[in-house]
Specification:
By secondary structure, this protein is an alpha+beta fold. It is built from 28 helices and 22 strands. The strands form seven sheets. The protein has a six-stranded mixed beta sheet with strand order 2-8-5-4-3-9, with no helix packed on it. A three-stranded mixed beta sheet has the order 1-7-6, with no helix packed on it. One of its GO terms (biological process) is tRNA transcription by RNA polymerase III. One of its GO terms (cellular component) is RNA polymerase III complex.
Length: 701
């Protein structure tokens, strides 16, 4: 050691001070495209601005147009390409010459914890950590602006057809194609996409700065903050680390690389990982993934020897008892501020609907999906999700609860069962207020058990006639006789049955519910099915049937506002928008309890709209509701005539070219039709693909 010290003697000791005055404000600017001998100190800085979160800086510097090295003709040509010939305040170059250039920063490194600016004075070294290291490079955004001007001029010369088609394509993707809400994976991909990041970066506002040259008095004042301000303060402590510890801080040892395990699905958790969690989290994770489980199976999945009493305390926090089995609570699956991945319905509405399905299974082994959807009035995808969580479809029995009743658990734990029963009574009272029903309305009669059978139309007709004769007068007074001159083979009651044959509506082999309650309701997702409407009640079939109920003011307002926003809609799209409107209503709101297809169509026709008879091709696979196209006919403005001419065109063909529409408008309206009117008309009512134009909603994939 002695010889080593002699070979490397200490020449001088220097005190090092940490200056913190500019610790969050100090940036190092680098100019990689400029030689170090040619600084920008003497160049006039016109403006400066920064986005602090992104550490993005823009500097505007003047160009010496009087220099012999400056090409005046090139500068004037660039200004002409960028700004054109017009003189406006928004022009990039106000003097019709490129007299300035912009420098934009990029980060040299994202981690500046190892970098600092140091200044040496009188045997003392003062160090200030850097907030960021930025490279300033010339920006050529003015060339992009020149390209945009060039494209605009070309589009104007060509009449704007191609640019209009491209613009309409963009509009179609946003306003015409009503796609489902994105999944979590799609949302993550979108968040990580370049376009999304660019949009987020653009949202941060610029902070404008004042530039002071190196010889300015304000710069001298700020440079004083590079020195430590409290030289004798208590914060300046000597380094008490040992040489080995100090060396380890300067050069930390290389950590051994851990062998990464193969990445598995995000929703898969191994049993070994599961058992490292607290007991409450174990139970919650299992129930959230399995959704329905007997208590004995739950105990088998936990660590052997786990106290069953502690598990019972945990399970009651995240699940409810249904037929002796535990079903995960709705608020665990749908946390607050979340929404449906299918329809975008808020979590609060989803929880109420799922609680109703769970409550029904506490009293019945099987339920009918149409009956559930008619009460909770949620989109079919969400109702199907609720049922798939806890039931399976059975032929001729609807949806049956997934597991057999666990009477052993109820017998072994009567206190838990009693507590859960009291909890369900409280939930039932809330559901009755929300959905406006009583338990007696849904429970089948004891002496007449509810039967679900599959009947033909003739069998149901005979049964309805027999039931009509046996009903007491208080019920028969609601029966409506068929019109004079027609066979009395159709009976429609407000409380009895509908005798028109109904098809099976569910693709997963769910049977037809022929009980009186379901048939009286006759609705799918809040709408009576078109199959349940009696022929005598259709105003378009030539029969003078029962008069339809008049629409409520609220329904007329909904239809009016919807068509003033979308202009052209198919009946299926109106239904979808109406379903979303129902789901957004406050709890207990029974405004649109029974709205049939006929009432909805009549309301549309009463709202200054007309049905457009679009001649769909014979091979079209569109459903009947998708082929019923309605459009705004009169709004009281002069532009109505343009729309009416357009609708007349689409009664001849379901797709047309733009020039055909333009020719028809010119022929009918003459000079009243302008290019702006044409663009507005297509944007409001049509969608374009492959150079052809379609009415909204009529474009088939």
């Amino acid at each position: 050691m002695a010889s080593g010290e002699e070979d490397d003697p200490i020449i001088q000791e220097i005190d090092v001070y940490l200056a913190k005055s500019l610790v969050d404000k100090l940036y190092l600017f680098q100019y990689p495209v400029r030689p170090s001998s040619m600084t920008y100190d003497d160049v006039t800085h016109l403006s400066a601005k920064i986005k602090p979160k992104q550490q993005k800086v823009e500097l505007e510097m003047a160009i010496n147009t009087l220099s012999p090295n400056y090409c005046r003709s090139k500068g004037e040509q660039i200004a002409l390409n960028v700004d054109g010939t017009a003189s406006e305040d928004s022009n990039t170059y106000s003097v019709k010459m490129m007299d300035k250039q912009t420098f934009t920063s990029i980060q040299s490194t994202t981690n500046t914890s190892r970098y600092a600016a140091a200044i040496f004075r009188q045997g003392e070294l003062h160090v200030t950590p850097l907030q960021g290291i930025l490279q300033m490079r010339p920006s050529f955004s003015y060339l992009d602006k020149a390209d945009s001007k060039h494209r605009e001029r070309e589009a104007a010369n060509e009449g704007g057809d191609s640019s209009q088609d491209e613009a309409e394509e963009d509009v179609k993707a946003v306003t015409v194609r009503f796609s489902r809400p994105e999944s979590e994976q799609a949302r993550q991909r979108r968040i990580q996409s370049y376009d999304f990041l660019q949009k987020k970066h653009a949202e941060e506002p610029w902070v404008h700065l004042h530039y002071h040259s190196i010889n300015d008095g304000r710069s001298d004042h700020e440079r004083q903050y590079l020195y430590c301000q409290s030289m004798g303060g208590s914060e300046n402590t000597e380094l008490v680390k040992t040489p080995k510890e100090y060396l380890a801080m300067l050069m930390p040892p290389i950590a051994e690389e851990k062998i990464e395990k193969p990445a598995g699905p995000s929703n898969v958790l191994s049993m070994a990982q599961l058992r490292t969690l607290p007991l409450g989290d174990q139970v919650k994770t299992l129930m959230k993934n399995v959704k329905v489980m007997p208590f004995a199976n739950l105990m088998g999945l936990l660590t052997p020897g786990t106290d069953s009493t502690a598990v019972l305390r945990c399970i009651q926090q995240v699940a409810l008892l249904v037929q002796g089995n535990w079903v995960v609570k709705s608020d665990v699956l749908y946390p607050k501020n979340s929404c449906s991945p299918h329809s975008g319905v808020p979590a609060e509405v989803l929880c109420r609907g799922r609680d109703f399905v769970m409550w029904r299974f506490t009293h019945e082994r099987s339920v009918m999906r149409k009956e559930i959807a008619g009460i909770i009035k949620l989109p079919p995808e969400d109702v199907k999700d609720f049922l798939e969580h806890m039931a399976v479809p059975r032929i001729n029995r609807g949806w049956e609860f997934l597991l057999p009743s666990d009477s052993d658990f109820i017998r072994k734990h009567p206190d838990v069962a009693q507590r859960q029963q009291m909890l369900w009574l409280g939930i039932q009272s809330k559901l009755e207020k929300v959905f406006n029903f009583s338990k007696e309305d849904l429970a089948p009669k004891k002496d007449q058990p509810r039967e679900v059978v599959h009947m033909s139309g003739e069998q149901r007709l005979k049964a309805a006639r027999e039931r009509a004769r046996q009903n007491p007068p208080s019920v028969q007074k609601d029966l409506r006789a068929p019109p004079q001159g027609q066979a009395g083979d159709c009976v429609s009651t407000g409380t009895g049955v509908r005798v028109k044959e109904e098809p099976v509506s569910d693709a997963e082999d769910e049977p037809m519910d022929t009980s009186s309650a379901a048939l009286a309701n006759g609705s799918i997702n809040g709408y009576p099915s078109s199959a349940t409407s009696s022929p005598t009640s259709d105003p378009h079939n030539g029969h003078a049937g029962t008069p339809a109920p008049s629409p409520s003011p609220e329904l007329r307002d909904f239809v009016w506002n919807t068509f003033r926003k979308h202009y052209v809609l198919t009946l299926s799209e109106v239904k979808r928008l109406f379903n979303l409107h129902l789901a957004s209503l406050p709890p207990g709101h029974s405004l649109f309890h029974t709205v049939s297809d006929r009432l909805l169509q009549d309301t549309i026709l009463m709202s200054h709209c007309k049905q457009i008879l679009v001649p769909f091709p014979a091979q079209s696979k569109a459903a009947a509701d998708e082929q019923k196209v309605f459009a705004v006919w009169e709004t009281g403005e002069t532009f109505d005539k343009h729309r009416q001419v357009l609708y007349e065109i689409f009664t001849k063909s379901y797709r047309v070219r733009r020039n055909a529409i333009q020719a028809k408008l010119t022929h009918e309206l003459g000079d009243q039709s302008t290019k702006a009117d044409m663009d507005r008309l297509l944007k409001e009512c049509c969608v374009s693909i492959g150079g052809m134009w379609y009415l909204k909603g009529t474009l088939q994939s």
